[in-house]
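user: can you give me the structure for this one chain? tokens are fine.
assistant: on it. calling the predictor now.
[tool input]
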Amino acid sequence: MLDALELRPFAAAHPYRLSQGQKRRLSVATVLVAPPRVLILDEPTFGQDARTNERLLESLVTLNEAGLTIVMITHDLEAVWRCARSIVVLGGGRVAHAGPLTDLASHDEALAVAGLDGPFAVRALHALTAVLPRR
């Protein structure tokens, strides 16, 4: 697990001496040593550099494909777009949208209520459809 989450060089370090990103990865590693049936993560990509973020998301996708249910609480819609199958968007203390991730592209209002920008792929799709002629 230390190798998978790039923590091997810090195996002997006290957790208080780790960076914020390393501490987050350590918390994921400690849970995954004895895999649960459901994993709840709060902002797992916060404080990660791009390479580590990519590896973390790859690990989460692999775990999910192996049968682990993952609930990710995050503002990082790029991570959601990459990993999720379904999404619940909260805004103003209410559910603004719930459903398959593929429906997110048609629910800009739910993202706006939550104060979120859609993932780059969705924003690009909307920008292209706004300028391309309709048939």
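assistant: here you go. The beta strands are 38-42, 69-73, 86-91, 94-100. The first strand starts at residue 38 and ends at 42.
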